[in-house]
């Protein structure tokens, strides 16, 4: 089996078997609290379906794309991302605190 890239969402999932089929079960992450320092951006053509680019532009870390997905309840990427859609970018201090608690 091929090793998943570090940025893959599957690295945060558990593999389980049910009735002879193997599935990835997505974990139940705690909610990322909203603060008055969060940014709200509008999705432009550059960002449609590319949370990794948004994470790079705002956190300088493309692997944090899933934080933005969680903060905006985006489970079907890129289907849910539409042009001019508004999304919340949690401030980096909130993200660091969230990650520290998850360890």
Structural notes for this entry:
- By secondary structure, the chain is α+β, with helices and mostly antiparallel strands.
- It has a domain of 70 residues: Membrane-bound Lytic Murein Transglycosylase D, Chain A (Roll), CATH 3.10.350.
- The chain contains three helices and four strands, in the order βββααβα.
- The strands form two sheets. The chain has a two-stranded antiparallel sheet.
- A hairpin with a 2-residue loop joins strand 1 and strand 2.
- About 6% of the residues have low confidence.
Provide keyphrases for this structure:
alpha+beta, Membrane-bound Lytic Murein Transglycosylase D, Chain A, 103 residues, two-stranded antiparallel ribbon, two-stranded antiparallel sheet, 17% strand, globular, 3 helices
């Amino acid at each position: 089996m091929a090793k998943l890239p570090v940025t893959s969402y599957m690295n945060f999932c558990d593999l389980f078997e049910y009735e002879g089929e193997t599935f990835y079960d997505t974990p139940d992450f705690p909610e990322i609290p909203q603060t008055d320092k969060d940014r709200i951006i509008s999705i432009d053509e550059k960002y449609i379906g590319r949370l990794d680019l948004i994470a790079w532009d705002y956190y300088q870390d493309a692997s944090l794309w899933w934080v933005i997905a969680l903060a905006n309840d985006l489970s079907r990427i890129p289907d849910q991302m539409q042009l001019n859609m508004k999304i919340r970018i949690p401030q980096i201090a909130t993200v660091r605190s969230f990650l520290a608690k998850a360890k």
